[in-house]
Amino acid sequence: MKEVNYIRHLNGVLRKFSDDENISSSHRSLYMAFFELWNQKHFPETLMVNRKQVMALAKIRSRTTYHKQLRELKMWGYLQYHPSSNPQIGTLVELFRFDTLTDQKMDRTCSVSEQVPVQKMVSFIKHKNKHIINSFKQTCPKNEQVVIDYFQKENRSVLEAKKFYNFYEAIGWKLNGKNPITNWQACARNWMIKADEMKNDQRSGSPSQMRDNLHTNKNKNYGEPL
Predict the structure, then answer these.
(1) Are 104 and 11 contacting, i.e. CB atoms less than 8 angstroms apart?
(2) Is residue 61 pLDDT above 80, yes or no?
(3) Which of 7, 84, 114, 127 lies at a CB distance of 3.0 to 4.6 Å from 110, suitable for a disulfide?
């Protein structure tokens, strides 16, 4: 038997898997378990295998699944096997060669057919990124009336709505002069919260401070140094 080319055989069988709609991940796993043992034995024409060892390598727990997939791999032209009823003699497996086809040349360059999926993927990624960018586009109210209607809905005054609109209209609807506002309603709610906080601070702090500052003593001696 001619020496098996490890890489060419592996590339060949993986290509066949890719073109075969019947092949599942479990079939691939079982075949690769056989391939690993075949490689360890230096690629003999016939390989004697132990079912339990193969199932462990392939991560297959069910004996029924093992036999089913083994029969299917045989039926689809990947291997030949001869079961044995003797526990001292394992099943004989013959893996078909996939390293002798003339079209399986090792070439680092990509063919035209291989480039097409890549181009489609690049186009898809660009479209996806464009969609993501568009979803974060700046949003601002169409006009002042839209803002007034929103503020009135929140039981706020028309004057406050106009102040909000004029302020952000003047700075191009940006935060800190840099980042575009992506949700002007949320920005308006923050405006309302800050306005309420300022009113509360004025009500609680200003009168007492004014009384303290204006408090004088009628008996003050103006001759004392300051």
Answers:
(1) yes
(2) yes
(3) 114
